[in-house]
Design brief:
Oligomer: single chain
Strand content: 5-15%
Distance between the termini: 47 Å
Radius of gyration: 23 Å
Helix content: 40-55%
CATH class: Alpha Beta
Number of strands: 5
CATH superfamily: P-loop containing nucleotide triphosphate hydrolases
CATH topology: Rossmann fold
Strand order of the largest sheet: 2-3-1-4-5
CATH architecture: 3-Layer(aba) Sandwich
Shape: globular
Order of helices and strands: HHEHEHHEHHEHHHEHH
């Protein structure tokens, strides 16, 4: 039984489920209030810290797979999950395109080396499911390699689960209209321009191909004991809260009692003197320069959070 900030596991599951009611993709659905979002996110992040401590002390292993449409908000969800977690325990796995050597290996081989040891969490920002999505649609793999993946993937994941790994798979779903909006904002947003690639942009013209690939992938890999958890991501803030709440509800963690810590008293000085400042290279006081200028600082506003005009 989960004994975190929200009490029983059933209570947290109820909170997650109520967030999914209604049509998330509806044009009438307003953006989630920011104050409500920030307050609830803080509570969920505190629970993630509790879950992490349980996984660490109990020697559990957790793998979370993030898949879905380009610009659906996978990276933003991962960022909020890991914000307060120990990077030695919870690590993000975001692999680049395979090397020539890796292309000659068993397909799952390069992912295996990133699986968690006891007491660790791994968050896969895209995963072995690349073969069922972009590789299939863009022709980066052969039909034979694709069919082999569909046969082997359920077996591979079953082996992980049988070995004691907790596997959670999340698919972030977004409409074509919302995806195009986010792509357009990234074209002119210097903070997010790096997120766009020619392959990403081509996904706009291959929407139905990606849809068919996702449907076929689900037929083979959305199994009774290893379900895909679909996250409606039309509103990124709602999607983050829903996804994190669902993850917490799915892991049977308990609050871990930690030993009381006390700061030791500082010992008496033995006559140590700090090195003269002139002998060391200090960074310039950039903050003081800002204070002298007195210019108001403009906070960065994510254009993807802006509402589109009603049509």
């Amino acid at each position: 039984m989960l004994r975190g900030r929200f009490g029983a596991a059933e209570s947290l599951a109820t909170r997650a489920n109520c967030c999914h009611d209604g049509d998330m993709g509806s044009k009438q659905r307003l953006k989630l209030d920011n104050a409500l979002y920030e307050a609830e996110l803080t509570k969920l992040q505190a629970e993630l810290v509790e879950m992490q401590e349980w996984i660490r002390t109990e020697g559990k292993r957790l793998v979370v797979v993030f898949e879905g449409r380009d610009a659906a908000g996978k990276g933003g969800a991962i960022k909020r999950i890991t914000e307060y977690l120990n990077p030695r325990v919870a690590r993000i796995v975001a692999l680049p395109a395979p090397t020539e050597r890796e292309r000659t290996q068993w397909y799952f081989q390069r992912y295996v080396e990133h699986l968690p040891a006891a007491g660790e969490i791994r968050l896969f920002d895209r995963s072995w499911y690349n073969r069922a999505g972009v590789e299939r649609v863009m022709g980066y793999c052969t039909p034979e390699e694709y069919q082999r993946f569909l046969r082997q993937c359920p077996i591979f994941e079953q082996l992980l689960v049988e070995d004691g790994i907790m596997l959670r798979k999340y698919w972030f779903s977004v409409s074509g209209r919302e995806q195009e909006k986010r792509f357009r904002s990234r074209l002119t947003d210097p903070m997010r321009r790096w997120k766009l690639s020619p392959t990403d942009l081509e996904s706009l013209t291959r929407w139905e191909e990606y849809s068919r690939a996702k449907d076929e992938m689900f037929v083979h890999t959305d199994l009774p004991d290893n379900r895909w958890r679909v996250v409606e991501a039309e509103d990124k803030k709602r999607a983050r809260l829903n996804m994190i709440a669902d993850l917490l509800a799915s892991v049977p963690y308990e609050k871990v009692d930690r030993p009381e810590l006390e700061l030791p008293k500082r010992p008496a000085s033995t006559g140590y003197r700090r090195t003269e400042r002139d002998l060391q290279l200090y960074v310039a006081d950039f903050a003081a320069k800002l204070e002298r200028c007195g210019a108001p600082l403009k906070k960065y506003l994510d254009p993807e959070d802006l509402e589109l005009p009603r049509q």
